[in-house]
Amino acid sequence: MNYRRLFIPNSIIFITVVTFDRKEFLIPNIELFKQAVKQTRQKYQFDIVAICVLKNHIHMLLKTNNINEYPYIIKNIKRNFSVNFDISQIPDYYESDSRKSKGEKSIWQRRYFEHTIINERDLNKHIDYIHYNPMKHYQIAPKDWQYSSFNKFVQNGYYEQDWCNFEDKYNINELDYE
Questions:
Q1: pTM of the entire structure?
Q2: CATH number for 119
Q3: How many domains does the chain have?
Q4: Active site annotation includes 147
């Protein structure tokens, strides 16, 4: 299959990256993920506009200086994480013959979901979706999930601290990017 990506200069890209077989190892390894991002920033110039790290996937809005580099940024973050990750943390870990032949570990799904933000309304919907995820998956209020940019957005006046009640949930639920 030939996947095509949209490369519009100065745009923001919504990304969802998922662990292989949705294994839940990201939160115990959050420092390793942060280090992988830091290492990637040494090679590429980008900002993470909004982010939420969950047990088995990550949602983020990425703004790059060079839009053509965003696939390499994601690849580099995944690679930097994988190189330093202890696979013994994954119960029933296995590597398929296909992955073995390519020298890959079975840590991440090979592909990731991406969407180019098209306007301010689209951007706001995706920011809401990112910050809503702890409620969606774990029934944890965004303010209580420390692995997201939500509280930074509260400090900057974008959200009220108690955002994401059940009324908000029904407005956000129309979005599903996993």
A1: 0.88
A2: 3.30.70.1290
A3: 1
A4: yes
